[in-house]
Each structure stands twice: as structure tokens, then as C-alpha cells.
Amino acid sequence: MPAPNIHGRHPSPRRQTSKAGILRSCPGALAAFLLLPAITQAEAYADPPPEAVDAPYAAALEVVTVTSRKREELLQDVPLAITAYSGKELNERGVNDSRELFDTIPNLFFGRRASGLPPVPVIRGVYAAGNDPTIEPSVGFYVDGVYISSALQLDMSLLDIDSVEVLRGPQGTLYGKNTLSGAINIITRNPGDQPVANARVAYGNRSHLEASASVGGPLIEDKLLVKLTAARRKNDPFLYNNVLGRKVEHDDYTGALLSLRALPSDRLSVDLKLDTSRSRPSAGNAEAFSGSTAEYCRARPTGSQEPSGNCPAPWASNPFFAGHGYDFDEKAHNRVVSSDIESTNDQAAHGASLHAVYTGDYLELTSITSYRRFKDDITENRDGSAYPLLNRFGLDYDTRAYSQELRLTSVNNGALQWTLGLFGFKDERKLGMDTGSAAPGRPGLFNAGSASTPIFLDDFRETSRIESDSLAAFGQASYDFNDAWSLTLGARYTRENREISLLSDCDGFACPYFAFAPRGITPNEQKSSARENIFTPLATLSYRPVAHILTYLSASKGYKSGGYAPVFTFSVRPFDSEEVWNYEAGAKSSWLGGRLTANLAVFHMDWKDVQISSFTGSAGFLVQNAASVINQGIELEVSSRLSERFGIGGSYGFLDSHYDMPLAANSASRERRRPNSPRHSLNLYADYRYPLGGGWNLHARSDYSLKSGIIFRSDQVVGDRIQTGNSGLTQTYGLANARLGVESGDWGIHLWGKNLFDKNYYLSAGIFEGIGGGYYGIVGDPRSYGLELSVKL
């Protein structure tokens, strides 16, 4: 293994997919995998590692180095399920944000929710419940070692990326809070000791513009280095709103990153990174589908009936529906939305981090200090209809986060390697909510007993301030008994404090009719606080039967913080953290002199105290700890370089996620399967290069990703039983992307295309509860294509 980089950064060779896993529940799969050595020659421990192999294996895959265990290691030597990409490979795939990255990883699904709500990253079927942006995610996001606490920031752009590491399964020991299902570690490029200037610009249909540029070099030779990167991306909208008579759902991003690196000595490096961005991402304008009562009735003239005849009188006789007899296309995936307003997001993010590393002869001391601020102004159509029922719904979200990590790591290459650390985190969130309906004098949907008594949803206002802090101590050690056997043990102890102050005010005529409203108390202030102590251990036993195969068994625990969900509940009732135990077995292997890697993982997850978002029956949602869930599955990843010119590979994931509790008698669905958890995920790629002479190469790349249909419904817990709601299922969809171009060391010209077959698909789906009813889907991007030019000066 190469010696660690004293400046705390690993080299950045071209990465490819690689991971691990195998479980007790599928011993046959593991046995079959381990029989592969019989097909090829056995290798002695003294054989050279893949990176040292000479011709005729010069076409071997690049060696991948990761820092997932807070030290530099070869990916194939780490007993974890990990996928790693270099920035170069992300560019070759055309990946520029986190959602596109997720499409390539087994058992990882990234769904958007309606109208600016936080995105839903799902790893191995584990995701965060609730419709509130203050609810923390189940996936830990880290940029240069800094934890990103806001769920709204998970749908982020990737700016000047050196590498991305995706760890599947709970990472409660070295990463800590909110890594219940995994962690994503994004590492940006550091300034180099040579002057550099490069630029990249792409233009395509829908006025797609994507441009980035970097410039940097030494300010003081070998002592002070600098680099500035800026990026711009925008798209014209593609969804047609047949009420507003125009297109909606565009994307607009501008960002910059300034990196300063000081090298006072050969042993000390100090990196200061400042970033800022302003974006208007996809806001989740929802396309309604299915023939629910609300959707049929709102699309037909006054007095009309749904085909089943159950269009209730308040809908049919309400005079506001007169004159709104536009056609409603009952077919899904028509990229048409019907809303009286456009849902929008306006985000601003700013951050600063100071990363200092001192490397001695035997120990390395790391300090990471950070400050981040994130603001989001959200306007959404909460009722999901073409009528002004809850058409004035706004969220004003502002969070400040501070963190400090101190880490001491052994740097010798002996049998024992260890890491000890402390982590402190403080988070302050302010959330303002303002909502209303039609102006007084105009009829609304809700009727108090008859159509002649309209209710107006005017002036619900709510302001919440949530503060949390946590302090953790952690440690992990690995001991190599010999060349074959190794044991890793780790543990983390975390103390968390949370408190909320909620001020709610309801002035409108509707206040007395809703149980969640403060019933005339204006204003109404509530406070609450909570404290938790969490212990998250890890144990991994690895065995290397031959030099090119690593197998392991592991058990690890992760947790997601509790909190409050004040939006639309007017309540400060807290919910507790949730925990998961993950049992995993894996095998990582390299074949054909390093030209082929194949990694397999099987896992079983026991998920307790699951946070469930339950509909209250009026318009609010209550998050509570109640459910038990079992998640189990298989993950396989293969990468190959069959020749110097040609490489193929892919990944497959199977997931079974279901409630581990009996169904309630009145459950609408008899299936225990969890929503938002696709059973199958598949990714395939092919990469080809052909020399044209004069230093130029022809480069062709194709990628195909498939996600099976997801269940969408609203479930609730009643006592010790799960009450499942009416279910829907989105279609299985596959997306094909491709790139074709010529490139040299300094220039590149490529044609690119995404969703080449213009597949209509939903990123996620859900149900409009209570207010009009009906199903909705968040529509994925249509076909896009264009030309890209890159230059390095």
C-alpha cells in the first residue's frame, strides 16, 4: 500500500465503481462467489498487487484509493460496501449533481417530493419521514469532511470534485449522527503547485447552458497555493401548466469555490475553503394522475359526477368550480401540471472550512472547523389543485451550523492501526410558514356542513426556532493477525440536546374548524426540549483466502436524530431518534491481473423505533416513533478493462423492505412492503477509446440505469399494528445516456445526450392527503442533448 499523503489528500486517479457485501441470509450466493478462484489460478500472498502488474496486463483498471475510514486505503482492501468515483469519471458520465450520481449506485434511490419539500435519498430502503424541511436526513452528507445538516441541501451541485465516496449501510462509528443508511463523502480538489487554468462549457436543447472555469497556482512557491472555481448552469422549464398557460420547473445555479492551501512545513498543511452558491432548483411542481374523486371533479363542470358516481355534493355544487371545465388528461406521464401557482425554490448557501493536518512519525493530528449557512424561500401549492384552497403556502427556512472535529490517527503500517476523535456540532434553524386560501368573499373548497357555508383558509402563520447541539467521542482500531485475518472494532458515544420554540397565529375564519389550529389563541407560543444519549458500535472480521479476494462479516449500528415537525401541526411534540443494526457479509475480488473487479454484498437490517409520518385527519402530519422494519438485499458491482481501449461494467441491487409488525384490520393495502423502496436497481456502462493519431483519441461512453416501480401511499401506526393506506405503484423506468467525442490532453469536444429515448417517468409519487385528495408524481427530466467543449491551458 502506498504511503499516506502527508497533506491529508489522496491522489486522484480515475475511479470506478467498487464496493462490498455478503450476508448470513444468502450463504449460497457467498459460497458461489468464493468458488471463483477454482476457475482461475490461485495466487500466493507474495504475488504482486494489481497496481504492480506489467504487460500484458497494462490495461488493468486504475487503482482506487479512498479515505472512508479516515485514512488512505485501497478500495479493494476496505471491508465496507463503497462506491467511489473520481471527478474525471463524473465528467465522463455527464454527472453534475447528486441526484444524477445516485442513479448509478445499487440500492440507492433519490426521489424528489412535491413543491419544494426536502428530497428523499433512500439507501437500502432507509429514508427520513415527514414533510418538514427541519427533519434531518437519514443519509450523512459530507463535503471535505464537513457535515451538511440540512435535508434541503442534499440535492446539491457538484463543484470542482476530486472524488466522491458513497458508503452504504450505517456509519455510526466514524461518521456519527444521521448516517442511519449510509454516508456520502464529497472531496473537492486542492490547489496544486503548478499554474493551472481550465474551462468547460456545454450548450443544449431547452437553452441548456453549463459552464465552469478554474484558475490557480502558487502565490508563494511551495508555501501558499490558491485556486478559484466558478460554475453556472441553467435550463429552460419543461412542464406545461395548463392553468397558468406556461411552462414551469426550470433549473438555475451559480456557485464559486475559493481554496487556499498553506504548507508551512513538510509535516503541516492548512486548507481554507470558502464557497457560495445561489440556485433555483427544481421545485417539485406535481403532475396529478389517477382518477381520484378530487381530480375528476375539479376537471369537470359544476354538477358533473365521477364515473363511479361518488362525486360529493360540496364539490359539485361549489360555485367556484363553475367555468373551470378544462380537459384533464387521465393518462400518467403527460408532463402537464394543473396548479393555480408555480411552486418555486430560491436557495442561497455559504460555507467556510479550515482543515489542518499535522503528520508526525507515528501519529497524524487532524482538525476540521466549519461554519455553514443555508437559506431557502419556498412557495408551493399545498393543495395540489387548480383552485386557491391553500395557494398561498410559503416556507422561509434559515439554518446556521457550526462544527469542530479533532482526530488522532496512527500512520505506521504495522499490525495495529487506530483512530480516536472528538466531534462537536451546533445547529440553529428558523422556519417561518405562512399560508392562506382564496380572499374573503370568494368561495373555497371546505364547507361546514353544507355548500352554503364556505370556510376560508386564511392567515395560518407559524414561526419555529429549533436549536440542537451534539458532542461525540469515537474510536476505531484494526488489527492484522496475519496476512489473512484482520479484526476491526469501533464505538461512538453521542450526547444530543434539542429545543424548540414555536409561535403560531391563526387569524382566519377557518381556525375554529381545525383540531390542529390553536383555536383562537393569538398568538400561541409553545416550547419543548429533549436530550438523548446514543451508543453506536461496530465489529468487522475480514479474511483473505488468497491475495486477490477479501471477504468479511460485519455488524454495525447507526442512528438518526429525533426532533420536531412543526409544519402544519401547530405542535411541539417531539419524536425520538431511530436506530438500525446492520448485519453484512461481503467479498471483494480482483481478477485477470487487475483487469476485472467483482464485489458482492448481502445485508440484513433490523430497523427499530422507525419515525413514521402520519396524517392527522385535518391537514397536518404527526411524526412518531412506532414502526419496526426489516430491510435485506443483495448488491453486486463489476468493473472491467478488457483491453486498453474497451471497458464495461455495471451494478445490480435487490431490496426487500417490509414492516416487521402485523397489519391493522382496516388497512387498505394488505402488503407490508415499505414505500419509496425500489426492489431492483440496475446500472450498465461501456467505455471505448480509439487512437486517432497526433495525440487525439475518439471517446465513446454509454450508461443505462434502471429503477423498478416504487410503492407510494400513506401509512400510520395504530397501537402495535401498521395501518396501510391506498397504494399506487409507479412504472419501472430505464434511462439511457451517451457521450461521443474527440479529446487530447488539453482539449475535448463531445456530443452528449441524457434520457435519449425521452422516457416519461416519475422521480417519486405521493398522495395529497385531506385537501382535495388525489395522487401526484414528480416528473423526471425529458430528453436533453448538446455539445460540450473543454480546454486546459
Total number of helices = 5
Count of individual domains: 1
Question: Rg, please?
Answer: 27 Å
Give the uncertain stretches in residue-range form: 1-58, 290-333, 438-457, 512-521
Biggest sheet record: 22 strands, antiparallel, barrel
End-to-end span in angstroms?
Answer: 33 Å
Tell me, what is the CATH class?
Answer: Mainly Beta
- CATH fold annotation: Maltoporin, Chain A
What is the typical, i.e. mean, pLDDT? Answer: 78
| CATH homologous superfamily assignment | TonB-dependent receptor, beta-barrel domain
- Architecture (CATH level 2) name: Beta Barrel
Written account of the structure:
Residues 75-183 form the TonB-dependent receptor plug domain. It comes from Stutzerimonas kirkiae. One of its GO terms (cellular component) is cell outer membrane. It is a multi-pass membrane protein. This protein has 793 residues and is mainly beta. It has one domain (27-290, 332-660, 676-709, 730-792): TonB-dependent receptor, beta-barrel domain (Maltoporin, Chain A). The strands form eight sheets. The protein has a 22-stranded antiparallel β-barrel. The chain has a five-stranded mixed sheet with strand order 3-8-9-6-7. The chain has a three-stranded mixed sheet with strand order 14-13-18, with no helix packed on it. Mean pLDDT is 78; it is low at 1-58, 290-333, 438-457 and 512-521. It is 4% helix and 51% strand. It is built from five helices and 41 strands.
